[in-house]
Specification:
The complex is a heterodimer. Chain A is α+β, with helices and mostly antiparallel strands. Chain A contains 18 helices and twelve strands. Chain B has no helices and six strands. Classes of the chains: A alpha+beta, B mainly beta.
Chain lengths: 413, 82
């Protein structure tokens, strides 16, 4: 196979950079962008270089950050601006190649294999990218260059601000901790450590079968990642629209949830949002996932599948409540809930129609949900809602779409 | 230096291009723009912000940058002038 050239472009401290772009005076003081503590989103989302020097880390709480650096300036996030700059940068990438795969708001993979002959050399492309992003948009990039997506990402982690780094072999990244590798999170890293695997080099040296024993089928993937044998394809323009694998919404509530009524209030809003988005894409789901996190930050994920696929919010709601009642109780209060649907298909199953209640029920339910959506489209999201939602407007007063953007960025980190 | 937002009178032509004609100052003074020399996407590193930079020639032959950023116009200005 022909050797590919893949760039991983990572915008340096993206949220903080956008803030500093419009307020240059912030460049000279330690500054961080953090969520709203009143809504319990009070974690650091991004920080500038001066704050980094003081030991501020992404995802730590505002209080913890202020303890380390009392003079730290905290700014609220402006997601519209971040979205705007993210698109601006992405459009600039498209001038170099049509194979651009976004990974969160601030990261992208670019497959430039076919563009090299047009632009002359890889170095030319990289220099132009750095120059244009810096001068035309006012942000800075770190670029990792390799023949696969995984090494390219590690390259951008190693590169300093506004620079690039080639990764040609395993030896250059051997010393990096195992959790720097894509998809190795806290739990996987802890498991690996118990088997004496600390670095990427350690993973690469172990036989794939051994990793399979420790991590299940994921071990094989990890072995390929560490050895640079990843054949992952860099998506093309609009690929993401063609292939939606799951749709989800989650929400951290303004206060802890102590009973099933509280739980149902939030769940209603989430299910409405997920089913609306499903219908926007013309999709049907089969599997429903419920993700709950208690106030000790322990996460629990549950899932169930339907016999036939559906696009109804009511089905998501009923099944999520069923999953919750079967598996959880309120001995520890909950702080966030997420609902996801997967196994999506664009067609409703062709199946034997039920003679009696089910068919009329689902048709009636769908008509009702579509009518609600149309009213919301014309008169606003809060123009009509179920009585349950009105019981506690503090809990239900949120717009899942904005939350979705917030979470998708963080999952991308 | 500071970012000073200003009112601008523009000509939007049939081809979809936008050409600034007059800059209106705070005291309602209308300053004609003689010529637009260059239009390019640029970040303003002095005062912050990023958008389309119009390099304009004002009377009498004074060249200034006028930035168009998400629907708003601004100029770079020394703060002691304000």
């Amino acid at each position: 196979m022909r050797k590919r050239t893949i760039l991983h472009c990572d915008l340096n401290c993206f949220f903080a950079s956008v803030e500093m772009l419009y307020n240059p005076e912030l460049r000279n003081i330690p500054m961080a962008v953090a969520g709203d503590p009143e809504n319990r989103h009070g974690i650091i989302l991004a920080k500038n270089v001066l704050a980094k020097k003081k030991g501020i880390k992404t995802a730590e709480s505002i209080n913890e950050a202020l303890r380390k650096c009392p003079e730290l300036l905290i700014r609220k996030p402006d997601y519209n601006s971040y979205q705007y700059f993210s698109e601006l940068v992405r459009n600039l990438y498209y001038e170099f190649t049509d194979r651009v795969e976004p990974f969160g708001m601030d990261e992208c993979w670019l497959d430039i294999t076919e563009s090299i002959s047009y632009f002359g050399s890889v170095q030319n492309i990289v220099d132009q990218l750095l120059y244009r992003i810096r001068n035309e948009i006012g942000l800075t990039l770190s670029i990792g260059i390799a023949d696969n997506k995984i090494y390219a990402k590690l390259g951008s982690d190693l590169a300093t601000e506004d620079s690039f780094r080639y990764i040609n072999s395993l030896e250059e990244i051997r010393h990096m901790p195992a959790d720097a590798l894509l998809n190795v999170g806290y739990h996987t890293y802890e498991t690996l450590k118990t088997f004496g695997i600390y670095t990427i080099g350690d993973i690469a040296d172990k036989p794939a079968a051994y990793l399979n024993e420790i991590l299940g089928k994921y071990g094989n993937t990890l072995y390929c990642y560490a050895n640079g044998n990843d054949l992952g394809y860099v998506g093309k323009i609009d690929d993401e629209h063609e292939e939606i694998k799951s749709i989800s919404n989650s929400m951290t509530s303004v206060r802890d949830l102590y009973n099933i009524d509280d739980f149902k209030i939030i769940l209603t809003v989430l299910c409405d949002s997920v089913s609306t988005r499903l219908r926007e894409h013309g999709l049907y789901y089969r599997t429903i996932h419920l993700i709950v996190r208690n106030n000790k930050l322990e996460v629990r994920t549950m899932q169930t599948s339907l016999k036939e696929n559906s696009d109804l919010g009511k089905d998501i709601f009923d099944n999520a409540v069923m999953l919750f009642e079967r598996n959880c109780d309120f001995s520890i209060p909950y702080r966030s809930i997420g609902v996801a649907v997967s196994k999506l298909s664009s067609k409703k199953d062709i199946c034997q129609t039920s003679l009696f209640e089910k068919e009329t029920y689902s048709l009636k339910q769908k008509k009702q949900e579509v009518a609600l959506e149309q009213i919301r489209k014309r008169f606003g999201v809060n123009s009509i809602s179920s009585l349950r939602v009105l019981e506690d407007s503090d809990l239900s007063h949120f717009t899942p779409k904005e939350e979705k953007e917030y979470y998708s960025f963080h999952n991308g980190r | 230096m500071i970012r000073k937002y200003v009112d601008v009178i523009c000509l939007n032509d049939k081809g979809g291009n936008m050409k600034p004609l007059y800059l209106i100052w705070d005291d309602a003074r209308k300053v004609p723009i003689k010529k637009v020399k260059e239009i390019c996407p640029r970040a303003s590193l002095k005062v912050g912000g990023s958008g389309l930079r119009y390099t304009c020639v004002f009377e009498p032959n004074r060249v200034r940058h006028l930035y168009f950023d998400r629907g708003k116009w601004y100029v770079e200005m020394n703060d002691h002038v304000v």
